[in-house]
Amino acid sequence: MAEYKICFSVAGAFGVQISFEAKPGVSYDDAAASIDKDKLAKLTCLDTLGYSAKDIEIITPEQYEAEFGGDEYA
Questions:
Q1: Model pTM?
Q2: What is the DSSP letter of 42?
Q3: Long-range CB contacts (within 8 A, 24+) of 57-63
Q4: Is residue 8 within 8 Å of 57, Cβ to Cβ?
Q5: Per-residue model confidence as pLDDT tens digits over 41-59
Q6: Is the pLDDT of residue 71 over 90?
């Protein structure tokens, strides 16, 4: 199994990362395209905070690092 990390920007205000394991060889673009943003908003409780799938933008790990500063927890 390979570990994947998909990164998101939420309304440009903060970043979210999800990690999961899957079979090796899946491209970042394919993994990111498989994400259902409506379900993601519900599972991460973003909908409770007033955000919707429209507010979620999939970004690269490099963009996440540049905009939100990496993996550390706030």
A1: 0.81
A2: H
A3: 57/8, 57/9, 57/10, 57/12, 58/6, 58/7, 58/8, 58/32, 59/7, 59/8, 59/9, 59/15, 60/7, 60/28, 61/5, 61/7, 61/28, 63/7, 63/9
A4: yes
A5: 999 999 999 999 999 999 9
A6: no
